[in-house]
Amino acid sequence: MPPKSPLAPASFPVMPRIAGVRLAAGACGVRYKDRTDVLLVELAPGTTVAGVLTKSLTASAPVEWCRARLGVGRGRALVVNSGNANAFTGKSGDRATMATASAVGKLVGCTKREIFLASTGVIGEPLPAERIVAGIGEVHAHLTDAAWPAAAAAIMTTDTFPKGASRTARIGNATVSINGIAKGSGMIAPDMATMLAFVFTDAKLPATVLRRLLKDGADRSFNSITVDSDTSTSDTLLLFATGKGPAHPRIAAPGDARLRDFKAKLDEVLLDLALQVVRDGEGAQKLIRISVTGAASQAAARRIGLAIANSPLVKTAIAGEDANWGRIVMAVGKAGEKANRDRMRIRMGGITIASRGERVRNFDEAPVAEHMKGREIDVEVDVGVGRAGAVVWTCDLTHGYIDINADYRS
Amino acid sequence: MPPKSPLAPASFPVMPRIAGVRLAAGACGVRYKDRTDVLLVELAPGTTVAGVLTKSLTASAPVEWCRARLGVGRGRALVVNSGNANAFTGKSGDRATMATASAVGKLVGCTKREIFLASTGVIGEPLPAERIVAGIGEVHAHLTDAAWPAAAAAIMTTDTFPKGASRTARIGNATVSINGIAKGSGMIAPDMATMLAFVFTDAKLPATVLRRLLKDGADRSFNSITVDSDTSTSDTLLLFATGKGPAHPRIAAPGDARLRDFKAKLDEVLLDLALQVVRDGEGAQKLIRISVTGAASQAAARRIGLAIANSPLVKTAIAGEDANWGRIVMAVGKAGEKANRDRMRIRMGGITIASRGERVRNFDEAPVAEHMKGREIDVEVDVGVGRAGAVVWTCDLTHGYIDINADYRS
Which of A194, A201, A226, A293 is catalytic? Predict the structure, then answer.
């Protein structure tokens, strides 16, 4: 296993109990030996749910399972396994989701249509669901309201640290809680750039409201990050609301002003988790923030940002601590969005390197070179055609990425 | 300098003289020490020219220079420098092209509008054109009709071997010759995926005919290769016809049946050069051929092929000699083109791994694993929705790519 990413947070956050949420992790031997690989989350009756799923046309069986369940917006349990993605597994993949959901439905006492599933790991190998079915009773027997670190650890694949985030939020006079866990470190790109992320709150919110909040938040977080431009077949982001927290005013519409603080805190949890995914980008040594301004539209700005963020030449230059801004120009040029070569401005580490389409006169590279040695690299590009902007995040491309991915299955 | 690519051809090809073409390489010290870095090609009066140039919106000054000259379709000289791309150099870039073209026009005895220019190397640094101007007289004094290997060597940057290709073709009863040279090993992707490539023939063909032949040939060669998905600001492919070869029937239209053999041989030269570029992909250890069939259209097939070819996860898996076909499924899924997950078929090394959306029963990985150890990897994907196909080529993504690109400027 590779060492912990140098960009990892100092520690796993303190995560409070969420009323109506009980968790347990177990070792079912899906693929890995000597580690937990199945997470079971039981949710109180009445829990609402919304999701954002991969747009991949070769989505996994559990993704299709969730897609079919999200219309109703009710969930009583979540089962996640690591080690095998149950993707491109044909009919056996559908049988595996069915078997898992049936087994968990019996334990929890609900229909299988209220069970949500996610799988992550190798694609194209049949998922041995019988191992999950055989072990899930034992996992269920250990449900507690405190197992957040264990939950985050059980869903890891090539992750080098477990990912969690937590906030509290005010709705009216009540204080509700929001906890999230995530996994992901490669095959990360919009849309949607998740990997797996699961967020839970004790607020009482209808599924229609959750859907809007989650979609907006995902665009500014998981859909604004990229590690390697590869979109997983398994990307799943789910938000569950148990309604078992302190009583708060009834909320019927996502535009309700009393939701403002909750929205802000949910966005913080989503962005926190998304940036932890980038910080754990396979082989990542540096977190790169790319701010694009002066674009024709927000969508154009994001596409230009992602063209820069996904460029292997930009990412390797930054890995080499080289302020090779010429490659940023190249990436802007290939994005296919309007940009004015002769009005472009590029800043790195807050220092203007080029403006009006050429390097600034008497440019002193020393302070930029110093910035490039740091762990967090800041790139600003103004493309000189409009007033819209966007921010995207990525990491550098290093030998570590090759090490991890040239030998993942063995 | 990295060692010669293991995928390099055994030797530089024998290239005949092309009547009306004289070449010389010189060392003008643009950036490199102790090597040639400027190529001058003088073309006989009456030479016609066509070109395909990068679609980058941040194209280099010499690309814009060529774009403005191609309408007339006449060329008397070509000047290429390595070491500096003269891209994103603002007004100083335009002054540099003007100065170079003027100096060469005087030597050759033509207007500067008949001079074609190309530059390759670092982006964003002012091109010291005065060094080219100072040295070009000396280069001109050494023009010969035999300097093809030296020409191919002078335009190299991170290339590990010089690239040349040559064919003869029949037009009527006459045998004409076609010689091409190219450079490129990183920042290679459609459109258009060139790097620099220059092709010369002694046939007598109007510029309108050259344009059509070159565009068609480029789509099946340079626009079907990718090394790292990055499109250069400098991609330039030029085709010159001197008309000084053996007399042949007059050709007025690209559809003329008497052009059939010439077209085929031109396509061979273009594909030969394009594949040499992939074989010299930065850090490449394996040449990967990806054939996509069963697609809704040829364009869709090519986009799916390029999604596979550009996937860092596919490329690193192949670098690790791992037949990780799950990542191919992932790449098909993210291409955004129609594909039927449950009718897909994947073959590697001619062996069917998956069909009808899942791994074949009793799949024996041993012969595929053997294929993966070779230098040339063959991937076939049928996406199960239509009858169109396309072939693209790429190379694997290795530690060598990181080594080269994390430290290019220093």
Answer: A194
Q: Which chain A residues are closer than 8 Å to B56 by Cβ?
A: 330, 333-334
CB of B14 closer than 8 Å to CB of B211: no
Mean pLDDT score of chain A, rounded to an integer?
92
Residues 6+ away with beta carbon under 8 Å from A48: A73, A74, A75, A205, A206, A207, A210, A240, A241, A243
Q: What CATH number does domain B287-405 carry, 3.40.109.10, 3.10.20.340, 3.40.190.10, 3.40.630.30?
A: 3.10.20.340
Q: Does B382 touch chain A (CB under 8 A)?
A: no
Complex-level ipTM:
0.77
Q: Which of residues 238-277 of B touch A (CB under 8 A)?
A: none
CATH number of the A21-279 domain: 3.60.70.12
* Contact residues on chain B for A400, CB-CB shorter than 8 A: none
B293 counts as catalytic: no
**Block mean pLDDT (10 aa), chain B, length 410:** 85 97 97 93 98 88 96 96 90 95 97 96 90 98 97 93 97 97 72 73 98 94 80 88 97 96 98 93 91 95 93 90 88 88 93 90 91 96 96 90 70
CB atoms within 10 A of CB B73: 17
Contact B330 A56 (CB under 8 A): yes
Domain extents in chain A: 21-279, 287-405
Tell me phi and psi for residue A90, to 5 degrees.
55, -145
Angle at CA A357, nearest 5°, toward A352 and A361?
55
pTM of the complete model beyond 0.90 = no
